[in-house]
Every structure is written in C-alpha cells, then in structure tokens.
Amino acid sequence: MMNNTNIVANRALSHFSEKMVILTAGIGMFLSTLDTGIINIALPFLEKEFHSTVTITAWSVTIYVMALSATILLFGKLSDRIGRIRICLWGFVIFLFSSILCGLSQEMWQLLVFRAIQGIGAAALQATSAALITTLITPENRSHALGTLGVMIGLGPILGPTAGGFFISLGSWRWIFWINIPLCLIGLWACYKVSRVIKEEIHPSTIDVLGNIYFTLSALLFLFGFSHGSSVGMKSISTWGYIMISIILLVTFIIHESKVKHPIIDVHLFQHSNFIVPIFATVGFGVASAIIFIIPPYFLQAFTQLTPWQTGFVLLSAPLGLVIFSRIAGKYMERFGPKLIMKIGLCVMFIAFVGLSFIQAHWSPYIMVSLLLLYGGGGGIFQPANIASIMTSVSKEKQGTIGAVQRMLQNVAIAFGAAVAATFMDSQGNMETDGLIQAFRYSWYFAGGLLLFNLLCFLGYRKS
C-alpha cells in the first residue's frame, strides 16, 4: 500500500484516487439524505399496505432520523480511531443490507426495525463523508471537492420525492428502498479502490462508553420529544418532560466529557470562536432549512390553485439553488476563504427571509419560487464553506469526530426547526387567511432573526 505522500507525488494516481474519494463521500452523503425524504411520499401507501395508523407509519421516518442522530457521534469517534475508510465501508454494507430488508418487510414492525438499522448505516456514511475529503484530498482540490459534496447533499431532497413518486406510480413501494442497492454497490467499489491505495493514519484511543450512553439517550429523548410534540402539541407537559430530561442528560454528558481522559468531544473546543461561531451557524442553517421546507407547502395549498404536482416543482426551487451554488462556492472558497463565503451565504439567506416576511396571499407563486431559489442559493454558498471552516478548526486526527458533530447538530436543528414551524402554526387557532399569514410570518421572522444573529457573530468575530 502507498501512503498519502506517495499518492500526491504520483499525479495520475493522485487524480484517480481523489476522484474515488469524492465519489465515496458523495454517494454516502447522497444516500443518507435521499432516504430521509424518499419515504415521505410513500407513507399513505405503507399505511394501507400494513393496515397501520398514520402515527405508527410516520415512525418509519422518525426512527431513521433518531437512529442516525444517536449513533453518528460514535461513528465519528471510531473513524478517527480505526480509519474513516473502514467506517465508511461498514456504513455502505449496513445501508445495503438494511435497504434490502426494508423492501422485503411484511409487517410494519419489521420495516421500523430495518429503518432503524438503515439509520445506523446512514450515520456511518455521514460521519465520514466530510472527513474523507478534508483529510485525503490535496489542499488545492479540497474546496472544489467540498463544493461537490454540497451538491450531493442538495440532490437528496431534490430526487427523493421525485424518485419516490416514480416508484409508487409503478405500483410497488418496495423499490424506494431497493434503488439504494446499485448506489451502495458503486459506493463499495469506490471505497475499495480508495482502501487499496491509501493507508490512513490510525490513532488508537479508548471509547468513552458512559459518555456515549449519555449522549445517545439525550439525542433520542430530544428528537422523541419533538416527534411526540408534533402529535399531541408542543404545549404538552409530556413533550417538555422528554425535552427537559434530554437537556439534563446533555449537561451531564458535557460535565462527564470535561473530566475523562479520552472524551468523545473535546469540550474545550467550544471556548474557541473559530469553532463555535461556524457551529452556531450550522444550527441556524438547520433550523432555517426546516422552516423553508415545511411552511411553503401550507402556503401554496392555502392560497394558490396549484396542483400537488405543480406545488412539488415549486418546492424544488430551494434544493435546486443549493445544488447550483454549491459548485460556485467550491470554486471561490480557496480564493476568498471560507469565512467570507459563509457571510455572503448567510446574508443571501437572510434577504430571502426578509422577502418572504412581506409575501401576501394574492401574490404570484413565481415570487415564492424566486425567494426559495434565493434561499437555496444562499444555502449552497454557505454549506461547503461552513463544513470547511469547522473541519479545518481541528487537527486531522479529530476531523472524523468533528464532521460527525457538524452533521449531528444540523440534523437536530432541522428537527427543532420543524417543531418551531409547527408551534407557530398551532398558535393560530382559526387558521383563516389572517391567522395563516401571521403564523407564516412568525416562522419567517424566527428563521431570519436566527440567521441575522449568526451573521452578526461572524462580523464580531472578524473584528475580534
């Protein structure tokens, strides 16, 4: 086997190897985001197929996200310890077999179990994707590679509902899972090619089992609390009970991590502005993205005459903008630096929310398309630079863990943003035109204010 220095020295081999690294990371991220949304359109069919209820069927979505968020940090730590390529390989294998089993499910409980296993595979893929690029791609090609990764993240939400609808129209929901098989095989092939020419540095260390238990329980209860709240209401005592217990466990986790010799997360990182400011921006982006995907369908359904098919195309505007501008951001990141690119992206997204806050019921749907595209463009500019800034704030031997932290926080922020949107919707009791518009505006204000706060943090960081 060759080490990284040998590969860089051999330009032809280096080019091929880097292409394989990008393909491995890109397919892994694409698969994990594709399966977050591809099942949504199939929920009514699954409910009928398994003679289930709406609540239980919806758990096929929830349990995937919960398993992903609860295990991603462990896989990030393991990737730093035994190698990112190896963990990525495990992720593809787990995702492949769980996808096959999901499609073979005969009972709802079977589907839920296999979806949880699929979420674990997705966690291994998401935990390693960014770290593979930032540790194995040469500096001159890294920004372009991160831009490509941003494209793959955006393609998942674009193609998920479309592919799901296509396979449902063919008469079988099972293919929404089996479509993963060829993609997993391509990922395994690319991963194998990378493993043949790159020998990763291994950093042996013990795994903090107790800390991982604290974190896993905290993440599960936090996400379950918001899922429970979407069913019974965010004002429910039980909902806030789950959330408060998760916060207590999180505080316990942080205290524990500050005392152990080999923590999962070095909590001292959160004292450094070059890490904490981009991390807070990740959370803001996750919350805003949840709101931008949840509120527009209700608006279009309430105030336009668009068909569901036309509404779907309107909603593609945001992820389409993300895909297009991720490549552009990758090209300019090396020249201007990630912090300036992040500030531009945050500014563009904030402007989009300012426009949305003025939108009226009688306005043309094309205005919604334009504003969603503008938000997606800002997100595409922001996301690759955000990943680069967070990953480069730590040494290479910690980048697997930090990449997992970035994805985990974004996933949790998306769940929180969905709950915020639902809370504002529930707060308007009559749901008449004025009440709906007010609920939508509160959501836009909240997301826009959060992005403005992130932008001000960056401006303050520049002056410090």
TrEMBL record:
Keyword set, alphabetical order: Cell membrane, Membrane, Transmembrane, Transmembrane helix, Transport
Pfam families in alphabetical order: MFS_1
Annotated GO MF terms: transmembrane transporter activity
Main location: membrane
GO cellular component, one term: plasma membrane
Bilayer topology: Multi-pass membrane protein
Major facilitator superfamily (MFS) profile domain sequence ranges: 21-464
Subcellular localization: Cell membrane
Transmembrane segments: 21-43, 55-75, 87-106, 112-137, 149-169, 175-195, 207-225, 237-255, 275-299, 311-328, 340-360, 366-387, 408-424, 444-461
UniProt name for this protein: Major facilitator family transporter possible multidrug efflux pump
